[in-house]
Amino acid sequence: MGKYIAKRLGISVLILLLVVFIIYVLMRCLPSSYVETMALQLSQAPGAKPYEQWVAQLNAQYGLDVGLIPGYFVQLKNMLTGNFGDSWKYTVPVVQKFSEVIWLSFAIGSIALVLELLIAIPLGVVAAIRQYSKTDYTITAAALLGISLPTFFFATVLKLIFSVKLGWFDLFGLVSRNHQQLTPWGQFLDIAHHLVLPVITLVVISIGSLMRYTRTNMLEVMSADYIRTARAKGMGEARVVMGHAFRNTLIPLVTIIGGSLPGLFAGALVTETLFAIPGIGYTAYQAMIAGDIPFSIFYLTFLAALTLLGNLLSDIAYAVVDPRVRLN
Fold first, then answer.
1. Final residue in a domain of this structure, among 80, 113, 134
2. Same domain, 57 and 205
3. Cα gap 104→126, rounded to integer Å
4. pLDDT at residue 196 in the model
5. Is residue 132 a part of any domain in this protein?
6. Which of 70, 118, 143, 170 is the most buried (most CB within 10 A)?
7. CB pairs under 8 A, 24+ apart, for 241-245?
8. Are residues 251 and 220 in the same domain?
C-alpha cells in the first residue's frame, strides 16, 4: 500500500509541475498591456516610483523579463515559498484575498454535495431495483434533464420564477439591505435565505450524472452470480440489495465522490457569478476579466492542485475498498 501511494503521489507532483508550466506559458501569451496598466496605476500614487521602474519590477517579479524556462523557475520558486504577489484588482496579497472568500464557497459546495449524495444515490438504487418501470423511466428522465440543463439557463429560470414573479428571494447578493440591523441569528438566516437558489442550482445540475452512474453500477452488480446465489438461498430482497449489491456498488462510487473535492473548494464560477455570491469562483472571475495576473495564476494553480488531490484520494480510497487494485 505504501508503494502504491508513493507512486501515485509522485505522478501527481510531476503532473502539477507540468500544469504550472502550462499556466506560466499562457500567462506569457497575455498582452503586455496588463502589466503596463498596473504599472501606470502604481506610478500615479503620491511619491511612487516612475512608470518605467514599475514595469521593470513587475516583469522581474513574475519572470517576464527573462526567457521562458528561466522565467518558469522564477515563478515556481515564488509559488514554493508562498509568494503569489499582490492582487492587482483587490490591492491586497493574493493569499489574503483567497482566505477571505474560500470558506463561503466551501460551505456552499459542502451543502450541495451532501444534498446531491442524499438524493442521487437512493434514486439511482431505486431506479435499478425497479428497472423498466414507470419509476425507473421517471428517474432516468429527471437525470437526463439535470445533465442537459445549462447552469446559466436553469439559474436564470429560478431567478425569473422565485425572484421576479414570486418575490421570495433577492435576485443577487449574499445579504439583505438591513443585514447589519439583524441579530446574529437573524444574520445567519438572512445569508442562508440568499443561498437557497444557488444551492438548488448546484444540486439539480449535479445529481443527474450521479444518479445514472449509480443506476448503471447497481444493475451490473444485481446481475452478478453471487446475487442470484443469495436469492436462491432464500435471503430477503432487502438484505440482498443493501447488504450485498449496494455495498459493492459503493466501490466505483468512491471515485466519483473523491473527484468532488475540487468542487468543494474551487467554487462554482458560473453559479456564484450569476447570483453575485462573493465566493472564490466569483472573485476569480472578476480578477480574470480585470487582467489580475497574480490572482489568476494562483486560482488556476489551486484548481490544478485540488484536481490532482481529488484523484489521488480517489485512487487511495479505491485501493482501500478493492485490494485487487493494490495487487495489480
1. 80
2. no
3. 34
4. 92
5. yes
6. 143
7. 241/125, 241/129, 245/218, 245/221
8. yes
Are residues 62 and 129 located together in one domain of the fold?
no
Query: Backbone phi, then psi, for 264, in 5-degree steps?
Result: -70, -40
Same domain, yes or no, for 221 and 273?
yes
Q: Compute the chain's Rg from CA coordinates.
A: 25
Return d(Cα 193, Cα 163) in angstroms, integer. 12
SS3 content of the chain, % helix, strand, coil (to 5): 80, 0, 20
Given 27, 50, 80, the domain boundary residue is: 80
Backbone φ/ψ region at 167: left (φ over 0), alpha (ψ -120 to 50), beta: left
Q: Are residues 243 and 128 in the same domain?
A: yes
Q: pLDDT for 207-264, tens place per residue?
A: 888 888 888 888 888 877 777 787 787 777 777 777 777 777 777 777 777 667 676 6
Of 74, 109, 79, 76, which is closest to residue 94 (Cα–Cα)? Answer: 79
Predicted TM-score of the model (pTM)? 0.80
- As for how many domains the chain has, the answer is 2
pLDDT tens by residue, 90-140: 888 888 999 998 888 888 888 988 898 899 888 988 888 888 889 889 998
Q: How far apart are CA 56 and CA 64, in angstroms?
A: 9
Measured CA to CA, the distance from residue 130 to residue 240 in angstroms comes to 14
Angstrom distance (rounded) from CA 74 to CA 24: 10
